[in-house]
TrEMBL record:
Location in or out of the cell: Cytoplasm
Designated name of the protein: Guanylate kinase
Biological role stated in the UniProt entry: Essential for recycling GMP and indirectly, cGMP.
Keywords attached to this entry: ATP-binding, Cytoplasm, Kinase, Nucleotide-binding, Transferase
EC number: 2.7.4.8
Annotated ranges, domain Guanylate kinase-like: 14-192
Family from the record: Belongs to the guanylate kinase family.
EC top class named in words: transferase
Pfam families: Guanylate_kin
Amino acid sequence: MSAGEPGTGVRARPRLTVVSGPSGVGKSTVVAELRRMDPTVFFSVSMTTRNQRPGEIDGAHYHFVDRARFDELAGRGEFLEWAEYAGNCYGTPRQPVLDALASGKPAILEIELQGARQVRVAMPEAQLVMLVPPSWETLVGRLTGRGTEDPEVVRHRLAVAEKELDAQGEFDALVVNTDVKQAAAELLTLMTGTAVRKPWSSS
């Protein structure tokens, strides 16, 4: 067995792990707990053209730029992925991720399904993990239990969530968010444990 194969106990070469999942599944909470467990993990901060909200810190919550700057970077291929939502652009800067991996740090990125698919193309060696609820009923409860959103908005989110969950087969691993600490620990193991080859891998 070579280094990094299952059963050797050797830490795998650092790579990017992409965490995705439907709205309401708890992605941000689980990733925040993972970062608390292991502060050495590099967390990729997205860039956006939307306005900075009260309490947000530039460079911590997002990198805030204007549309001209965003378009310039996108045109130069400096995003691993990017998309436009509700008139605002969001993207993942490529170089900070590459720099973190080169320095030996595992990196994590929390994005939606569309972005995860783009990362799969841009960086095929990235590990895609879908965070899923314990049950569909649990997710419905989380989305409707907020009680602060228009029913039509909730119905739309549930429809989108159903489509996102149907894409589970595109991901390398699933983590069920029954308990935040447990889910974060499982995700951390996937990020820093020994490499697990897919059955169809030829390498």
